[in-house]
Predict the 3D structure of the following.
Amino acid sequence: MIPELGHFALILALGIAALQAVVPIVGWRTRDSRLLAFAGSAAQGQFLCVLLAYVCLTSSFITKDFSVAYVAENAHTQLPLIYRISAVWGAHEGSLLLWTFMLSSWTFAVSVFNRRLPAELGALVVSILGMISVGFLLFLLLTSNPFERLFPVPLEGRDLNPLLQDPGLAIHPPTLYMGYVGFSVAFAFSIAALLTGKLDAAWARWTRPWTTAAWMFLTLGITLGSWWAYNELGWGGWWFWDPVENASFMPWLAGTALIHSLAVTEKRGILKSWTALLAILAFSLSLLGTFLVRSGVLVSVHAFATDPSRGLFILVFMGIIVGGALTLYAWRAPKLASDGELNLFSREGLLLFNNVFLVVACGAILLGTLYPLVLDTLKLGKISVGPPYFNAVFLPLTVPLFVLVGLGAVVPWKKGRVGETWKRLRIPAMAAVAAAIILPFALEGRATIVALAGGLLGSWTIFAAVQDVWRRARAKPSLLSGLINVPRAIWGMTIAHVGLGCWALGVAFVTSYGFEQDVRLAPMAEAALGAYSFGFQGAIETKGPNFIAQQGTVTVEQGGRPVATLNPQKRFYPSQRNVQTESAVDVGLTRDLYVSLGEAFDDGSWSLRIYVKPMIRFVWLGGVLMFIGGGLAASDRRYRLARAAERSAVSASGATAA
Amino acid sequence: MRFAIPLIVLAGLIAVFFFGLQHDPRELPSPLIGKSAPAFELPIVPFPASDAPPLRLTASELKGKPLLVNFFASWCAGCQVEHPFLMQLAQTGTVELVGIDYKDADADLRAWLGQKGNPYAPILADLEGKVGIDWGVYGVPETFVLNADGVIVYKHIGPMTAEAWKTKIRPLLGAGA
Amino acid sequence: MIRRLMSGLAFVITATNVQAQVVTEKPPIPLTAEQDVRFRELLPDLRCLVCQNESIADSTAPLALDLKYEVRGLVAQGKSEREIKKYLTDRYGDFVLFRPPFDARTALLWLGPGLLVLLGLLALVLHVRRTRQAHAPSGPVDAAALKKLLDEQP
């Protein structure tokens, strides 16, 4: 009953979404305000239907209803409740339902918060989101129905892939999808602006919080994915330049360029067509990611079970949505008002430089990811493009970006002066040089080029950001009131940039000073790695809810003093007949100690992989700080003041300080 | 008309993806096509077992007539799938099958082929997989088609099927098939 | 959502169905310190062919371990990086290299990013020039307003 209810809810949602897509457009052309207002009702109705469908599927999982094929594929009688709930998005059909649910949620949110927007713009945005919903609902209903029944009903499910039975994996897809789907809002705003021909500073101010919110979730999603991979995949790696990782990183880069470009358009009313294009690009890359994961076109660790017919559907859908958007862009963008004057040494100039490098980085990653496919299609053979290429190409591009981050917050709008800028920045610059030299020696006793460079760029970013807030706060009578009065958006920017600097430090140090060793240890034997000594105490058998494991005990000492006891496991999941390595990590801010079990030998000894990873926590700390910074920036007061909407609808370039 | 550039780029990408959907990204073309079979020397597995001193076979002895070199193992699920067809093929006598047993235990091999039948003449044992590496084998089963001069003319990846035999391999063997 | 076949999974599954693949335990070939460094630097450039996007440095798949052993032997023999890569591409094609070679087919791949940077900067400069021409300054009134704006604290 419940699965059928869910199925029906999806069909109903499709009908409503179709109306949501079409009616407001008619209302716009005929200037009928009732038809425009229908957009909001349709969005809310669609949301309720998709929510119902989602709840039905979740309920089928919780009750272990194996008559639903998708539940039988991904759950198990012994699967813990929390993983039964997260298994909903564990495979293709359910994750697509999650995507659709996120889309209807964002649309619902836009319909609720659009009172400040002109009625026309708000309705058009919802209408375009409706078109996208129609596409995804059709995809679900025609090719990927999660409510398919299975007869005869099996007594036992196939269980969720053990790799997904982890808390990090529980949150990673929802946050990632919040980001991917959230960029559809910016996309819709861009299309609506191109349709109406009105793209100005006010438009930018309405679009910005949505875009920043999507960006912050994407940042968190990528960070969680990296953290999960580190913990679960057993090789101590945290980024592999896997095609699907790239598919999430590219929209992130475009999205970062977009939030900065929106700042310029809001403040100075320039770069309009560029901003509109970036908004289209960010969401297009999200769609591309969907295509790459689900079509089987690329070999990837992440790929769902491949099905070319699904791939074809997404490809056609992508062609219609993105092709339609870019055709509209080619036709209407030239008509947007011509740009104001731009000085290269000004905040908007530096932000434009930042955009160039971000978009080039995105393009380079796209090139590397698709190149093997292009060559293969042209029958020029099969090549691989892996981490050595991406590292060689991407890392140099980050250098100018980090330099710009420090400069950008300090150089004023319209025209900056070099002398003034140097006066403000010379302390952070000198502090950064000092930190760059001190940190490697203080932490590791020796310096490498990568550590020096990363230390310099990361410290520079952090100090310049902090110095900017300090300067603003000091302008007030008391420091404390100054800090409180700094606009939330500035705090958001500062914290996000500090996060970026932390990320750079983490990456530089773990790359330079991380080391690993494969050893074979008999019980009671020891291996030395750096300043640490790892003692293997043997392995015993233990049981989990749905697995049996061999659990090793490893004690770690530093200079004779015990530091940690680690329990790496090798788990066997009988239902999937799957062996999984569960590594053990001793977490520290300045270093991680990481052990994973290899193979057992006849004499009771085991092969172990041991890692020491300095500063790796900073990589994810950076991501979390960027998430927090984004949240602060998106919730700045000026977006929530109703009155500002009327004021800036009048003046094109008038906007409050950012 | 620079505003149309993104649209043109998109059109190109869609075309690439459309054709890409028809390709299998996991199948590796072999760089050995058109080259002589890589040199090797492997022990022949006497079947049925015998106490006679083991003979060895070298790659140069694979000339003289076209044949199929099939890398297989008793532990490989795909090999069990293709086995019936290989038995059929061996019985028709259209082409000789040389079997190279890849990283397998003698006892397991005899248990399997003893039960299901032996289509190979002869079976060679590549215990360490070194010859497999020289031939660019990355999984079993894989079948190489050699012409009378000992040159590799085709590589079939995965279990051999009647379909593949009929449409791709038999035409290459020309007269005498 | 993320379904992943572990590198050795295909072999593990067949192992539980049928008899196990023979894993001959070969002692690692000794390398000098300098050779060991070269060996470790080479491994991330080589792809594990049966895994989904791993290098042979990380993978525990049987084929990856075999290839690792081969490469180790070649390093011990004093072969150069180029010779070792050729050894592998002769057998498996360019697919086995994670760092693509630079040849006529891949020139666009390696030069592409640099070209994109140049194109991007060129577009930026052209845009600045275009807007400057469209907004040539005019009149003393404008200049005063401009100065006032310039002196405004952000």
Remarks:
- Chain C has six helices and no strands.
- Chain C touches chain A through 51 residues (CB under 8 Å).
- The domain at 9-96 of chain C is CATH 1.10.8.640 (Helicase, Ruva Protein; domain 3).
- Residues 1-19 of chain C have pLDDT under 50 and may be disordered.
